[in-house]
Design goal:
single chain; 5-stranded mixed sheet; 12 helices
Length: 285
């Protein structure tokens, strides 16, 4: 137990030091910066004791200053993870770049968007407009507003086709215990961003865990009910939010994402984008 507590304190200290470093870079390049997931929640929701484990530090930078921020990171010794086989895909097709450091700094997941195109959308400019500063033991940590915390969690699970663990949902449970959400805003953004089913699945999970959350207004529509029954073949959304079976190599993109997304043209748009990026990968290789 002592070893676990010590590891938690070390992580909390590293998070604190690295938030300061990243704020310094943001000021240097004139970027807006939001801390995501454990980089925010460990201090704000868990008391900064390292209970909310994170293997890296996730941040969202306004898209207009994303490359300047990335360059400043590299000037401080961070190096982007870039497989030679996917250089174009990462450069132009990825919503985030992952950086490692040879020294004591934790890896950084640098996001320019939160959603996975073309399936979903959560407008970065609107997210920054709704962002707020959260207080944590004298430190002010800027992150998503409470409504966007829930929307981002729904996106995160859908982006990863529910292959991730419960930590992000745990964060949302803690947010709901302390914040009142603007539910009409949540539902409007879910409809606008093509993520109604993803939000519905998260709400079902939260309800099963004892949270008082409303029923999604679209949940009784015939087409949504059909999609909900279909996705139930792969995804469980009760007390546990996760996969019922391992994801097939192709079924995730060809079957599950089209069911999860409200975007009727998602699959052909994805196929064209994927083909173009992979062609560029081959050229650069």
């Amino acid at each position: 137990m002592a070893t676990r507590l010590d590891a938690g304190r070390v992580q909390a200290m590293l998070f604190h030091r690295q938030r300061e470093l990243l704020r310094e870079i943001a000021r240097e390049v004139g970027a807006e910066l939001l801390f995501l997931k454990a980089a925010w929640s460990d201090a704000v929701l868990y008391g900064g004791r390292g209970e909310r484990v994170g293997s890296d530090l996730d941040v969202l930078v306004n898209p207009g200053r994303f490359e300047a921020f990335a360059a400043a990171l590299e000037q401080r010794g961070f190096r982007r993870y870039e497989p030679a086989t996917h250089r174009a895909t990462i450069e132009w097709g990825s919503k985030e770049w992952t950086y490692g450091h040879p020294g004591a700094w934790m890896p950084v997941d640098l996001h320019r968007e939160l959603a996975e195109p073309p399936w979903f959308d959560l407008d970065a400019a609107a997210v920054f407009a709704r962002a707020r500063a959260w207080s944590a033991d004298g430190e002010s940590i800027r992150s998503l507003g409470p409504e966007d915390q829930l929307l981002y969690a729904a996106l995160h699970y859908a982006n990863h086709l529910y292959e991730i663990d419960a930590r992000h949902a745990d964060d949302v449970v803690r947010v709901l215990r302390r914040e009142s959400l603007d539910w009409p805003l949540v539902f409007a953004e879910a409809e606008r961003g093509g993520l109604r089913l993803a939000v519905q699945l998260l709400l079902e999970h939260l309800r099963a865990r004892g949270c008082e959350v409303p029923t999604a207004p679209w949940s009784t529509r015939p087409w949504m009910r059909a999609r909900r029954r279909l996705i139930d073949r792969w995804v469980e959304a009760g007390e546990r939010l996760g996969r019922r079976r391992p994801m097939g190599r192709r079924s995730g993109v060809l079957l599950e994402r089209p069911v999860l997304s409200d975007r009727w043209g998602g699959l052909p748009s994805w196929a064209l984008r994927y083909a173009a990026l992979r062609a560029l990968d081959r050229v650069l290789r």
